Amino acid sequence: MKILVCIKRVPDMESKFKVDADGTWYEKTDLAWRMNEYDEYAVEQAVQLKEQEEDSDLTVLCIGGDQVKETMKKALAMGCDRGAHIADDNSSSKEPFEIAGIIAEYAKDKSFDLVFTGMQSQDRGSAQVGILVAELLDIPGIATIVDFVYSGGEVKVKRELEGGVKACVTVKAPLVVTCQLGLNTPRYPTLPNIMKAKKKELLSLPVEDLLKVDSRQETAKIYFPEKKGGGLILEGDAPELVDKLIQILKEKTAVLA
Amino acid sequence: MKIILVAEYRDGKLLASFNELMDFADKMGGENVMFLVGGDNDLPKYDGKLYLADAGTFGEYSPDVHKQLILDIVEKEQADMVAFCHSSYGWDLAPRVAFALKAAQVSEIVEIVDGVPVVPVCNAKLRRDVQIKTKRSVVTLQAGAFGLPEEPAGTPTIEKVEGDLAGRVQFTGYEQPESGGVDLGKARIVVSAGRGIGKPENVEMIANLAQALGGEYGASRPVVDSEWVEHNRQVGTTGQTVAPKLYVACGISGAIQHLAGMKKSEFIVAVNTDKDAPIGEAADVLVVADLKEFVPLLTEKIQSL
Ligand SMILES: Cc1cc2nc3c(=O)[nH]c(=O)nc-3n(C[C@H](O)[C@H](O)[C@H](O)COP(=O)(O)OP(=O)(O)OC[C@H]3O[C@@H](n4cnc5c(N)ncnc54)[C@H](O)[C@@H]3O)c2cc1C
Ligand SMILES: Nc1ncnc2c1ncn2[C@@H]1O[C@H](COP(=O)(O)O)[C@@H](O)[C@H]1O
Fold it and tell me: Given an 8 Å threshold on Cβ–Cβ distance, is B133 in contact with A256?
């Protein structure tokens, strides 16, 4: 069985962001980076499937500059067999249709049985790439899964809907699924597996060979939202903060009465 | 500008979010029509043309089929835009429609400023103005970003959609969340634990503060997903909606899905080490502090009052 998992490298959302010189994305220096949270669930599920099915081969794909190889190594240490790095220093300015186009172009003649993506990226958050890849490859795609069972070519998934309701769906491979929080508990790579990962194949391919679609949208401008104000910010030593907060709760609410 | 508004229907009921689509259409101006795979039993109060496909025939979840139905209507109406809610239904369907129409899709619109769609970036810390380069477009609207101030009261002119279509996936039924347990909706005070608590042992710290205040404790989703707290205490779109007199968010960043479950609280206090955490926008007071230090001190002080 051939499996593909697509991951993105994103900044830690607790970082202090700045607008870049063009004013069309965030400044990429001085940030802490990690694997997109949703993609960790995708990698874990792909690795579990690989462990379940004999003779399977799991590729992790990531589009981005050289730095993303760090993140790919984590996926390799979690259990992916090989890495396909699509080298692109401008990946952050590519819109979801271009990203999906690149992935589909890479995947089109490799007959993957299963493609895993995250349901959304934490920075761009378009929630489009996975389903677009499915459409481009002309195979079924199912968004936002929280449960996945594969058996003999048939896949049973649960999609998470609002209010905690789940929809149960059965479909035949090949297909694409986009992974939601709570699908599984991603494993921590162990030291021996981190060492082993260093020897795994990690090939870089130039993005120019794979980008065959045109962009359909652009970012005109990126900026900080206007603070609506109203909210009071308290800073200082903890004991002092406690007193201040209690004072406010006494004045503004009836909860301490 | 002609927009197809795609309303949603689940488990035999229309979802109230159709009203957000209507408000969006009003703000965009121009003509619009609504589309629903649903039933006669529960119709949107929409004063206009409603293309109604029967959920019994076409299925509540059947992406290939729903996509084709929408494409047929876009063709028939010569529409310029298709609007979805940014929901589990929209995430699944919108990209398919965009792909087939060779249209740009703009996801999670929070606002339209002078005709330009604005979307959030990085957990709402930043915003982006999007420029669409295609003739037609597909959009999804952030939950709660739009909405008519009053209950709509119209009656739609129904045009039934018939057909015989088959899809590649088989929907086999819904699974309801486990019920029972705590009803956070009734609590006067709710103190919630977010991922910022760091480890399961710290849930107790949050529960203690809740108890000192005479309230209940809740949690954000990652805390529930990690099984540190049971699901019936989760606050947010996929958990409970609460509106207590006081909500204290400890180590919670303030993602839209969490805010949706607690922003109607009367008074909101957030405790967070990150001064720029988006929860600050919703909070009446943001205490910039390490919760591990602050919460026990606060609990002690309240107990001694
Ligand atoms: C379809 C869908 C449905 C969802 N439904 C829900 C839902 O119902 N409910 C929900 O909550 N989420 C839901 N989410 C998830 C949501 O998008 C966020 O991922 C989640 O709310 C983040 O939880 P958090 O704030 O606890 O964690 P994080 O976003 O990781 O934030 C942790 C915060 O803790 C702060 N912090 C860290 N250390 C400390 C410390 N020592 N002291 C004080 N502060 C600290 C950090 O600065 C940060 O702001 C849903 C997501 C999707 C896609
Ligand atoms: N640069 C990238 N490289 C590889 N996969 C990506 C990239 N960007 C997005 N993806 C995949 O697409 C998913 C959805 O992203 P998005 O549509 O941007 O929200 C992510 O969770 C990843 O699985």
Answer: no
